[in-house]
Amino acid sequence: xxxxSLLKTAQGHPMLVELxxxxxYNGHLVNCDTWMNIHLREVICTSKDGDRFWRMPECYIRxxxxxxxxxPDEVIDKVxxxxxxxxxxxxxxxxxxxxxxxxxxxxxxxxxxxxxxRGRG
Length: 121
Prior knowledge:
The protein has helices at residues 3-9, 73-89, and strands at 14-19, 24-32, 38-46, 53-61, 66-70. It is α+β, with helices and mostly antiparallel strands. It has a domain at 3-79: SH3 type barrels (Roll), CATH 2.30.30.100. A five-stranded antiparallel β-sheet has the order 4-3-2-1-5. A hairpin with a 6-residue loop joins β3 and β4. The two termini are 46 Å apart.
């Protein structure tokens, strides 16, 4: 399971985000991007020591400041089901490329009198 696929599935669900500086943010995930920047709504921020709380309508958290994410178990289960169903639907891929062991064709022994292919000479 990839972290970004987990976050995409968690959109609209509550989550806890702990930052490297110790602050925690509890809110509903609105969106995330490929750098794991996170946009939360209905946020409660808790200070590092746990003494102060702030309520915010929304906040944006830069991805490289995140230390820990906690999402509901139902989201994790949903991602695992989607991954499994996607793997079941995908047909097996056969014959991916020609490989390096063939002697015929470009650069092979039967392609001409010169040695071959992409060498430097």
